[in-house]
Amino acid sequence: MKIQDKRVLITGASGGIGQAIARELVKHKAKVILTGRRQDVLESLAKELKCDFQVCDLSNPTELDKLIETIGSIDIYVANAGIPGAGSTFDLGPEEIDRTIDVNLRAPIHSSMAFAREMAKQGSGHIVFISSIAGLVTSPTTTLYCATKFGLRGFALSLRQELSDKNIGVSVILPGFISEAGMFANAKVDLPKVTRTKSPQDVSKAVIKAITANKAEILVAPAELRFGSKLASVFPYLAEFVQNSRSAREAAAKLQQAQRNVK
Ligand SMILES: NC(=O)c1ccc[n+]([C@@H]2O[C@H](COP(=O)([O-])OP(=O)(O)OC[C@H]3O[C@@H](n4cnc5c(N)ncnc54)[C@H](OP(=O)(O)O)[C@@H]3O)[C@@H](O)[C@H]2O)c1
After folding, report:
1. At what angle do helices 200-213 and 16-27 cross, to 10 degrees?
2. DSSP bridge pairs for 79
3. Confidence band (pLDDT; 50, 70, 90) for 261?
4. DSSP letters for the chain
5. C-alpha of residue 60 to centroid of ligand 1, in Å
6. In sequence order, what are the beta bridge partners of 198?
7. Which residues line ligand 1 (CB under 6 A)?
8. How many Å lie between the centroid of ligand 1 and the Cα of residue 95?
9. What is the overall mean pLDDT for the chain?
10. For 170-196, what is the mean pLDDT?
């Protein structure tokens, strides 16, 4: 789908990756609408990019319904908002579990189906979901995050098949570790020396490619991580083996600790 003059809604637009996606879409002359919870961040970005914004807490079903109704029809939807849901079986409470599922999975499912019904009436559209490499590879410290990101990937790829005869494209982006901005960069955790990262701009460029070339899935990660994660998704014992190394366990534990209170 061409991007110029298309009406686009981006969730999580106040965050590291969301801001990069918004900037890239505006560069491609889309009519962007930003959404997130932090009004001050959205307001200043909207001013800079000369676009609209709507404040919405996606974990609140009433607010989500209101957002869907207010936005009405759009041409492109980028479901990017997400939280780490960090914590173990022994310290995550029911509210935290439900909030992570609501933000990372419930909200993108409800909203994309609602927007897809409008896109079907218009005769075209494109939906992009930001999952994660954690939608392919498991780890002992990202149980809840992996559950939502695997779920989002499965939903996206199935929805793509369901909507293909309606001229609605669906893509899923799987970023690896993203430096400079976003939830991993904010955690300020050093990775094992061999692990390379990508930038928020790499993710935003992948979003453009996904929309313009109707790509099913794009991994935004260095070659070794792309190859390793695909392999680990077919052979789960391989993921267990790699995650068991001392350096991987230490980095994962530090990341879990740093993201523990991100809500
Ligand atoms: N950074 C990485 O290394 C990485 C890697 C793989 C995948 N991802 C995925 O990329 C996406 C963007 O993450 P990021 O790195 O940019 O993280 P981020 O900087 O923490 O941004 C998260 C965004 O989600 C929004 N959000 C969180 N809870 C919300 C809620 N209840 N209602 C509405 N919006 C909410 C935040 O908005 P407010 O705070 O304004 O509410 C913010 O805009 C996520 O889906 C994440 O899982 C990131």
Report:
1. 50
2. 129
3. confident
4. ---TT-EEEETTTTSHHHHHHHHHHHHTT-EEEEEES-HHHHHHHHHHHT-EEEE--TT-HHHHHHHHHHH---SEEEE---------TTT--HHHHHHHHIIIIIHHHHHHHHHHHHHHHHT-EEEEEE--GGGT---TT-HHHHHHHHHHHHHHHHHHHHHGGGTEEEEEEEE--B-SSSHHHHHT-PPPTT---B-HHHHHHHHHHHHHHT-SEEEES-HHHHHHHHHHHH-HHHHHHHHTSHHHHHHHHHHHHHTTT--
5. 16
6. 178
7. 12-18, 36-38, 41, 56-59, 80-83, 103, 130, 132, 175, 177-178, 182-184
8. 18
9. 96
10. 94
pLDDT tens digit sequence for 33-65? 999 999 999 999 999 999 999 999 999 999 999
Q: Partners of 127 in the beta sheet?
A: 77, 170
pLDDT tens by residue, 126-148: 999 999 999 999 999 999 999 99
**Do residues 75 and 8 lie in contact, with contact meaning Cβ atoms separated by under 8 Å?**
yes
Residues in the chain: 263
Q: Which two tokens stand for residue 176?
A: 């690896």
Q: Which amino acid is at 72?
A: G
Homologous superfamily of domain range 7-258: NAD(P)-binding Rossmann-like Domain (3.40.50.720)
Sole residue written with tokens 């637009």: 13
